[in-house]
Amino acid sequence: MPSMRQKHHSGFTLMELMVSLAVFLVITSVVMSGMLQMMKTQGSVANRTEMHTSVRSATELLQQEIGQAGRVSLPAAVLPVNITQDITANPTTAQTVSISSTLNMFPQMLLDIDAGQNFEVVTLTAVAPGTITAIFTRSHINPTTHTTAVQVSGAFGTGIVPPAAGLNCATPGYLAYSGPGTGSDCNTLKLYGDINGDGNIVYVEYKCDTANASKTSPGYLYRNQVADAVVVGTTKPAVTPAMYLLNNLEKNPNQAWDGCFTYQVQNAPGPAGNPVAFVTDVALTLTVQTQLRDPQTNDFQNETKALLNITPRNVFYVWEATSLGEVPRNQPMPANIASLL
What we know:
Blueprint: H1 14-68, E1 81-83, E2 95-98, E3 110-113, E4 120-123, E5 126-128, E6 131-134, E7 148-151, E8 155-156, E9 188-193, E10 202-209, E11 219-226, E12 244-250, E13 261-269, E14 275-289, E15 302-310, H2 313-323, E16 330-331, H3 335-340
């Protein structure tokens, strides 16, 4: 019989396949576990980044507007402002005179009139379109143009509306705001002035509500704004969710009272020597939680952001000048602002 060659076949045994599969599953498990952990870590980072960004945006806005509170100026769009007629001095009788613009002027406002030897500060007793009424103790006569320059200086001493009585979040023994309207409090910061630097007086109300805040039902911080706030009849809009700056507030830890704002109040001699309160520093503390639960701990993470020394520089200027006996042009609160408090 012819000889036949024996064929040899190489391959893996069943045991080798099972060992290989086991090694593959172990490696896959390790890789998948690492990827899941990385995804959880990224989720944690994204949660905290979003939380940090939102609270930083809110505090930066608060810091900017508190710093500008009390500022007063005439709108750039109408400058220069001039009285457009000659005026003969009359120290006993108010005179109604024509003016190039009355935009953002209001009764009791202090205006700087003219310059040099004819300079004086007048108090407006009435404002109407195209005219102002005041007592002029000096003559203002310009035979060439019959115009007299008008400026506004100083600041609103109540640009940060002083706190109401009986609060734990203000300087001990402080002189409380007596009206009109109600003052700021631990939860509500009320401020006004030319905060945008465009000559328009704006009223802004910040409110933080953490009284019933919990992990599953956090509190909020909203900002309500009234533009052209000196115009009589301008009202404060109703609060809507669009005004919320933060909707994830928690109660501040280690704080005996509920709220976000603290006030340093200092006094200076006012009319007839009666003391007048000025808010010269505002502190802000916000505790926020992440919008979503942390993927690793399955709980909400939190962060406390504190700004302890925010100085409303315009209010501080008026307080400092008043304390030193200088002429600070402490502008009175416009009547329509008072109606918003």
